[in-house]
Amino acid sequence: MRNSKYDKFFILTKLEQQFFQEFCDKVISLDPAIRFAGIADEDGKILAVSERKGLKPLLTPEERAQYAITAATRQYT
């Protein structure tokens, strides 16, 4: 976890982005029943997403972003 006064401005490196994306892709490949995998930071900002191909998503990107923010907020309350 980053620990500086600039934490809220951090940008993922290409290596971090690649790692998170590969992780989500791996989760999707584990079981055909898994439709979606995503990683969000502690503020609910979505960092990586993978969806099963051929399926209609249950949430729009906007709904998914709001859900991630709500889940992150719920964790700290």
Would you mind describing this structure in some detail?
This protein has two helices and two strands, in the order αββα. The chain has 77 residues and is of the alpha+beta class. The protein has one domain (12-75). Strands 1-2 form a two-stranded antiparallel sheet. β1 (36-40) and β2 form a beta hairpin. It is globular, with a radius of gyration of 14 Å. The model has no long low-confidence stretch (mean pLDDT 89).
In short:
Helices cover about 40% and strands about 15% of the residues. With about 80 residues, it is of the alpha+beta class.
Nearest-angstrom radius of gyration? Answer: 14 Å
Q: List the secondary-structure elements in sequence, H or E.
A: HEEH
Let me know the average pLDDT: 89
Terminal CA distance? 20 Å
Number of domains: 1
Overall helicity: 40-55%
Q: How is the quaternary structure best described? A: single chain
Provide the structure class: alpha+beta
Largest sheet: 2 strands, antiparallel
Strand order of the largest sheet: 1-2
Question: What does the overall shape look like?
Answer: globular
Unreliable spans are none
Number of helical segments?
2
Q: How much of the sequence is in beta strands? A: 5-15%
- Report the strand count: 2
